[in-house]
Structure formats: structure tokens, C-alpha cells
Amino acid sequence: ADALRKLGVLHQIESDQDILEDKDIEKLILILKTIEDLGNEESLAEALHIDFLNIPPLDIYKLIQESYSSRISLYEIMRKADSETYENPKRIKKTFRAFEKWKRISKNHPLPHLLEKVLEESGFIHYMLEEKERGEKMEKLRTLFDEIKKFIESHKRASLKNLLAHIETLETHNILVKRTSALSQNKVHLLTAHKSKGLEFEYVYIVGAYDGHWGNKRKPDPLPLPQ
Questions:
Q1: How many C-beta atoms surround the C-beta of residue 119 within 10 A?
Q2: Phi and psi at residue 190, in whole multiples of 5°?
Q3: Taking all residues of the chain, what is their mean pLDDT, rounded to a whole number?
Q4: Which whole number is the average pLDDT over 157-163?
Q5: CA-based radius of gyration for the chain
Q6: CA distances from 37 to 52, 59, 102, 107, 142 (A)
Q7: Among 25, 13, 37, residue whose Cα is nearest residue 170
Q8: Can you give the pLDDT at residue 143?
Q9: Residues 57, 114: Cα–Cα separation, whole Å
């Protein structure tokens, strides 16, 4: 996959992948965790580095440094960010207001409404659509929301806290949230030999195949039986 990516060849991985290990899905979950635990400044400081929030790295350093030296909360520093100190104070304040708004929504509206607002207002959807592998990225996002939908159907009054606890349980017990996708004719498909059975591809390349490794294996000696 890495080699094809470097060559600019469109490809799709068909093996069982845990979407919770996807870097972009991890960013979205980090935002949700920051909303739920709004007073946790360590979580907020980590979330500020998320690329699609577009806060300049130097501004993040200054925010954290000022919060530490003045013993004032990071949220309060963000709320008062000024143009004399920071490169993009408008972006900082916008991010502060967004987390504040999302927290209020999480306490007063159903979970699906919160998720919709976060996806739209954080810039996450726009960011995903600009990715070269946007098709695969959007499939992973759809898979995540299918999992969330199943969870909400089983827990009608589920809160953000309940959802995050569910995701943590999946991660703790290594329960895969598998991405499902339809085959595309315009991409190279990377999959195991077993998964390729019956798909009738016109061309198939078996990577790393050599005598004794793929077929023609030497049969082991049978177990000696007592006389």
C-alpha cells in the first residue's frame, strides 16, 4: 500500500482493518473526548494540534506556555487571545467557542445532533473530502457511524459519555470495527488469496510468492507410531 501510494496508484485495502486505528478517525474521537471532558487541559492541548482545526503550531506553544506561567486555564487564555501575542487569534477564539458550543449541545440535545454539528463545524468533512484517498476515508467514516447507529439503537438515551465508554471497550478488548466496501474497477485491490476467491479478477499478482512458500510445500514426516 505504501509503495502504491508513493507512485500515485489508486488502491484499496480489502483486508480486515480496524477503523478505530485510522489516524483521521482518531482525531475525530479525540475531539469528542475533549468535548466530554472539557476541563481536561491535557486533552485540549492535544486536540489543538489537530491539523484541520488550523491553529498555527507556534500559537499552540504560546497558549500552553502562557497558561503554565500565568496559572490560568488554557480555555481562559484561548478566550482572551489577542493579535499582539498570537498569529491567528481569530482561529483560536473560534476553536474555543466551538468546543464551548459543542459541550452545550452534548448536554441538551440527542447524540446524533452533536455528531452532525461536530462533523460540519470542525472542518472534518471538508478535510476528508480533500484527501487523495477520500473514497476510502469516507467509507471508514461511514463504518464508524454505522457502529454508532447500532449503539444508539440499543441505547436510546445514550450520551456522549456512554458512546466514548463503548468505543473504549472495543479498543480494550481488541474488537475490530471492520470497514466494508464495494469493489471498484478503477483501483488496485490489496487482499489475501482467501478473500479473492470467487471475485474473478482479470489480473492477479501474488506478492512474495516463491517455491515452497506458495504451494509445493514439503510434507512433514508423519508422527512415528508405536510398534
A1: 17
A2: -105, 115
A3: 87
A4: 95
A5: 24
A6: 21, 23, 12, 12, 25
A7: 25
A8: 87
A9: 27
